[in-house]
Amino acid sequence: MSALLLSYFTASPLGIYGCKGKLCRRRLWGGTMRGDVMGGTQQVKDVEKFINKHELLHMNDRVVLAVSGGPDSLALLQYFQQIKHDYNLSLYVASVDHGLRGEESRQDLEYVRSLAGNLGVPFFGTSVDVPAYKQETGMGTQEAARLLRYRYFKEVMDEVQADKLAFGHHGDDQAETMLMQITRSAMPEAIHGMPVKRPFARGSIIRPFLCLEKKQLVKYCEQYQIKPRYDPSNEETDYTRNAVRKHILPFMKEANPKLHRHMQRLSERFTEERTFIQEQALQVLKKVKMEGGKGGFTQFSKTEFQKHPLALQRSAFHLILNYLYGNQFEEISYLHEEMFFHLLDEQKPNASLDFPKGLKIIRAYDELTFTFRSEKENSPFFQTLYIGEQVSLPDGSTISLTAGEDSREQGSCEYVCDSHHVSLPLIVRNRMPGDRMVLRGMNGSKKVKDIFIDQKIPAQLRDNWPLVTDHDGQILWLVGLKKGEGCTRDSSGTWLRLQYKK
Hints:
Blueprint: H1 3-8, E1 10-12, E2 15-17, E3 27-29, E4 32-34, H2 41-53, E5 62-66, H3 71-87, E6 90-97, H4 103-119, E7 123-127, H5 130-137, H6 141-160, E8 164-166, H7 171-184, E9 197-200, E10 203-206, H8 214-223, H9 240-255, H10 259-285, E11 289-291, E12 297-301, H11 302-305, H12 310-325, H13 334-345, E13 350-354, E14 360-364, E15 367-371, E16 382-385, E17 390-392, E18 398-404, E19 414-418, E20 426-430, E21 436-437, E22 446-447, H14 448-454, H15 459-462, E23 466-469, E24 475-478, E25 482-483, E26 495-501
Parallel strand pairs: 5-6, 5-8, 6-7, 8-10
Antiparallel strand pairs: 1-2, 3-4, 9-10, 11-12, 12-15, 13-14, 14-15, 16-20, 17-18, 18-26, 19-26, 20-23, 21-22, 23-24, 24-25
């Protein structure tokens, strides 16, 4: 650190103080020497109250501070230096150079390293190649930078066995985030802001400054003559967040100077109420068959699902999507939700929807299935079957043919007919347009299509459903569903027995 920089900062167990040859004014409060930080003692109390309300810190916590060199993160470093004795905290600084601004961003990393060194706080830093990762994955700049940054923070937390990862996000950041979420989606599930605390790595992410405004943190840095480094890309309005920050947020804060508090309370309210509804919605999911996790499938009864209040149905729908998409379903909008509920109310017994990333929702009468499994193209099958042989169907099931003197049938998976009234070999095939069969005990014939409808067979299963005919084309058996006449009931002679096994 240069002599000029050392003239501004004096390393102290209590933090970084701008002394300039004289002691800063300090006051004894809660057992710790503190100044009028963050624009005044009230703001300090606000942060402590916020930390206590959300139980962000506990005694003896090991805390990694995410420090970029900007005013928010340097304020975070200063504040934690002040309170570390109250909680007996072990502090660590982690910083990431994203490689987006060349030498300038590398200097940011070295600047943070020097500050941490002067404070005696262990430092962890790295440089990552965001442009290369973007090219490799197809991600956007912000998404790629965030993923690499969090990946490194996790490594640091694991190495030092940290309990918390602290960020300097403030109330204005929260307002920006929620405004962006409102703009991008009309779905309440997508509007939640940044969580005050959430699980991460082996511990939790915490954001103790969400109760403050940006200007309070800037004033804090000015008061202690902390010299932040600024990223010029934050001034560019190519990114949506920067445009919101520069153009929309000032207008809204002019109308409501306490907008940051309003948005934070709104975020907390959303979280509390959504948590309660989701707990209730879990009762709905008890009757939903769920397998495979991300990329898997779910299946449930439409009738059972619609017995619940609409709010719980909506919440259960989104929980199912969370399960199948692995909590990454940004492409789902309120339009998809409307499509799903229209599918529930539709009068047609068979229908389907195509959702992003290959998810298909299929309704077959009362059964609803969410699946990523691609349906195999319906391929016609046509196999001859002689006495003593067995044929395999596309789904792995089998049909065998034997002959004997016993005419008794056992259940829907067997069919027995008189060998004198059918022509061999038998044919096992899928249905064809215009197929009709004479049912046992019925005069006249009936379309196979109508039998499927009467039996409520899902439309996607019908084309591959096996049926058996004799060599002349007479349909003897719609396997497992209906049996044709095609034989006498004379007890003498040889009987043919068809057996179906799944």
